[in-house]
Amino acid sequence: MARRTHWEDIEEQILSPVASRSRHSRGRLRPEDPCPIRTAYQRDRDRILHSKAFRRLKHKTQVFISPGGDHYRTRLTHTLEVAQIARTIARGLRLNEDLTEAIALGHDLGHTPFGHTGEDVLDRLLPEGFRHNEQSLRVVERLENGRRGLNLTEEVRNGILNHTGGGMPYTLEGQIVKTADRIAYINHDIDDALRAGIIEKEELPREALDVVGFAYSGRIGAMVTDMIEASEGQDRIRMSDRVWDAMNLLREFLFYRVYVGSAAKEEDRKVNRLVEEMFRFYMEDPHRMPPEFLEGNDPVFRQVADYISGMTDSYAISQYKALFIPHGYREQ
Question: Looking at beta carbons, which pairs linking 211-215 to residues 24 or more positions away fall under 8 Å?
Answer without folding.
Answer: 211/242, 211/243, 211/245, 211/246, 212/243, 212/246, 212/247, 212/250
